[in-house]
Amino acid sequence: MRVVIVGASLAAVRSAESLRMLGFDGQITMIGDEDRYPYDRPPLSKEVLSRRVEFDEIVLRDTTGLAELDVELLLGKPATDLDPLDQRVQVGAEDIAYDHLIVATGARARAVSSFENVDGALLLRTFSDAIAVRDAMDRAEHILVVGAGFIGSEVASAACHRGLRTTVLEMAEAPLARALGGLIGGRLRQIHADHGSVLRCGVTVVGPTNPRGVRLADGTAIEADVVILGLGSIPNTEWLAGSGLSVDDGVLCDTVGRAVGVDRVHAVGDVARWASWRFGDRTRTEHWTAAGDQAQIVAGDILGRDPGPEPVPYVWSDQFGHRIQIVGRCRPSIDEVAIVRDDPAGFAAITGRMGRLASAVTIDDSRQLAIFRRLIARDTSWPDALAATA
Q1: Which of 8, 12, 254, 358 could form a disulfide with 353 if both were Cys (CB 3.0 to 4.6 A apart)?
Q2: Are 254 and 297 in contact (CB under 8 A)?
Q3: From CA 10, how far away is CA 291, in angstroms rounded?
């Protein structure tokens, strides 16, 4: 049996590792569009920008590591088409047959057309992007970040760490407001302020200025040496057009990663929108731990194993010397929110939905987070979760 993995990301590597760990002894072929060995992405917006690591320190599997897994790796050769009836993937002029296919093509940084040809306007998604941002920081005095999500805030943190004047522009009311809401985001605003990041929320960027900078909806302009766009991501699904896979902001999957609409195809990582029985939704979970969790489930499903209980989502972000951690799934527009700790040494909040504990957010409080993670895994009621914090 041959498993073909399209993508050479963390999710792809973890899929290959999980297959071997579960005893699969067939052929594994991994197809990557970059001309680099698979590498870890979280350091790109953190340590790489601070000059603490180079590429060889973030490689997940090099030649030796891939040989240990007995994986055939095709680099610099993006897949361009999928025929699920004949079970073939087109890579350049070659058709590669599969018995099972794992789509792990990830996502790319969301670009803004008005900034595409602007000198000094950068995105951050790949190692090459990170080097370009780092080199720009070397020459800059003022960094302007558009977007205060995970990437934008981490870039701002790295810039402040390097002593650069840093301005962050965010359309929402607070950093990570779409993910966590304004009540929790208020604490994150204070963290920016405490470390010299000039954060402006509730502003809309309409385009670039000349030679460098941005223009806001109110007509004002902000000049900077470098503009870094952190506006989210777009799943890499264009190559799947006409394949029969159901695609809507990612490959639609069931609760074990099987792609909707075809047989013998799974999807993992940033490109995949998995259904969740625990939260009753279908979401792209663009986080490091989700890639590994999904890879284990998919490998088990291919080999006919029971998937076990649904993992509790987990994500972390290191910003300005603080560790922000989230378990579960927060829906700010509909969740109840209770802040259970808020002092200089740490912060913790929980959210509830449909009578159950839905998520927890902590800053510098790993002990509380572990407690909430167990409560979410047990489907704890909202009243019982509140009682547990008393």
Answers
A1: 358
A2: no
A3: 7
Distance of CA 268 to the CA centre of its chain: 12
pTM, whole model, 2 decimals?
0.94
CA distance 69 to 49: 31
What is d(CA 167, CA 143) in angstroms, rounded to the nearest whole number? 6
In this structure, what token pair is assigned to residue 41?
């992405």
Distance between CA atoms of residues 54 and 109, nearest Å: 21
Question: Do 2-108+234-302 and 111-229 come out as alike in CATH topology?
Answer: yes
Domain 2-108+234-302 annotated CATH 3.40.50.1820: no
The helix or strand, by DSSP H or E, that contains position 103, with its residue range, turns out to be: strand 100-103
| pLDDT(55) > 90 | yes
pLDDT one-digit tens code per residue, 312-364: 999 999 999 999 999 999 888 889 999 999 988 899 999 999 999 999 999 99
C-alpha to C-alpha distances, 306 to 26, 29, 117, 281, nearest whole angstrom:
20, 24, 50, 21
CA angle 11, 16, 21 (to 5 degrees): 120
Burial class (CB in 10 A: 0-12, 13-18, 19+), 157: buried
Q: How far apart are CA 142 and CA 301, in angstroms?
A: 50
> What phi and psi, each to the nearest 5 degrees, are found at residue 383?
-60, -40
Q: How far is CA 166 from the centre of its chain?
A: 23
CATH tag for 111-229 (out of 2.40.30.110, 3.50.50.60, 1.10.760.10, 3.40.50.10840): 3.50.50.60
CATH class of the domain defined by 321-389: alpha beta
- Residue 43 in tokens: 């350091």
Residue 379 burial (C-beta neighbours within 10 Å; 0-12, 13-18, 19+): exposed
**In the predicted structure, residue 390 carries a pLDDT above the cut 80:** no
pLDDT surpasses 90 at 146: yes
Which helix (H) or strand (E) covers residue 298, if one does?
helix 288-302
Helices 127-139 and 150-161: angle between axes, nearest 10 degrees:
40
| 17-29 confidence digits (pLDDT tens) | 999 999 999 999 9
